[in-house]
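Data card: per-record layout.
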Amino acid sequence: MPRRSRRRLVPITTLIACALPCAGASAAPNTRVDLPLPGNEQRVEEAGQAQTLRALADRKQDRRDAAVRESRAGDGVVDVAKAQIGDGYAYGAGGPDAFDCSGLTAYIFGRRGVSLPHSSFGQAAMGRPVSRDDIRPGDLVFFSTAGSGASHVGIATGKTTAVSATNSGVMEHSTVDAYWGGHFVTARRL
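The structure for this 190-residue chain is written out next.
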């Protein structure tokens, strides 16, 4: 009966450490060394890389789709907000013909199926914070018009405009002019 030779398995790092000096090359520890892989292993590695790239592309597309959905939701809120321009102001009013600031935003978001408290301070705790540079249509924008904190709220219609119920009634105004820009507190995305 022929005798089988026993193969001894050697860690790849040992092989590389032995092979590099023999080949006249050198490498520092933790240095990447590219060695050609046999055909099957090369295909497996490339397939794994392709799968990783597809997963990354899918995640990126998911983020884009979510941004589009947010944008469309914001556009619907803006349409309802702009339809209220010209309505009157009354403290504590929640529509449909007169509003205070938080009553207007609660009414508009309520029409879209989102329940908000009838308080600018309460609404300022909803959703997630948005930087001033990242404001999108449909975001809530808050101002300190009566003391400190979020005492006034409106709905962004653009990066620098909002609809809110002021003492003069529901109107669209700048959020960066001398008055509103100086009183800006925060923005929130629902």
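Known properties of this structure: The helical segments are 12-22, 39-83, 101-111, 120-123, 178-183. The first strand starts at residue 88 and ends at 89.

See the next section for split statistics.
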